[in-house]
Amino acid sequence: MTPTLVRQHLAHAGETPRVDPGARARDWSEIQERMLVPLYEAVYERLDVGHGTRLLGLGCGSGLALLMAASRGAAVTGVDASRPERLALARERLLPEAWGTRPRGKTRLVEGTPQDAADAETPAYTLVTAFEPIGCLAGDSEGLGELLQAATPLAERGAPVVLAGWGPPERCTTSSVLRVATKLADPLRSTGSWRPALRDDLEEVAQRAGLKPDGSGRVACPFGYADLDSAVKGLLSTGLFDAAIAATDQAQVDKEVAEALHPYQRRDRTVWMPNVFRYLIARVP
């Protein structure tokens, strides 16, 4: 399941992760989100994102990927149905009235689904992105196909749709730390089991959504942190450890994640974990 679906499952089961959503969202935007900047840059460069691009970002979170596209001249719309705290941070970053400046292009942020972003006055999108990586937890692509099916009618025929995923575990140092989530969440194993990324994860999602794969790439996205505390906060902000927190407690998860990070702490106390992420470009039929 995706982190969103994990949270929904726990809520139905009568237990929720003992975390502060606002603090977690801030940790994501200040520490963790930037780790995927090389992925965003590689995709935007390959697709020549700029003036004339009308981008729809699915699961846009706190909006760094949208901000980067807007800085290239793109008109951007972001939708996120389940993380209002992150979306509030995206508004601080992207909406011009927050800073008293004029927008570079039309920017919209919508708490909801792609249908909620539909607007008869808005031209069809020329690019759709789903940058939240899949291929880390068992079932973490559930719901993504439906989200893509809802989004693609809003895009031009032939428009690229970009999906992102974790690379093979032997190329992702962080995989060893993510296994902590599986161990601690064993009573909830079906909701959050770590599993290695599979070669065709992204292609299968695209095909289920009726999209035509049209190229892919791999990008090095090392996770680098100023210290162990920042690394723990950053990783926990992903939501991948929520099931473990619900099954045990915050202190235990913090402790075991920190222990798993020790092999990657350097002499200057920084933490460095090389990773490779993969992206797929598919086309709207």
Automatic annotation (TrEMBL):
Keywords: Methyltransferase, Transferase. One of its GO terms (biological process) is methylation. GO terms for molecular function: methyltransferase activity. InterPro entries: SAM-dependent_MTases_sf (IPR029063). This is SAM-dependent methyltransferase. It comes from Streptomyces aquilus.
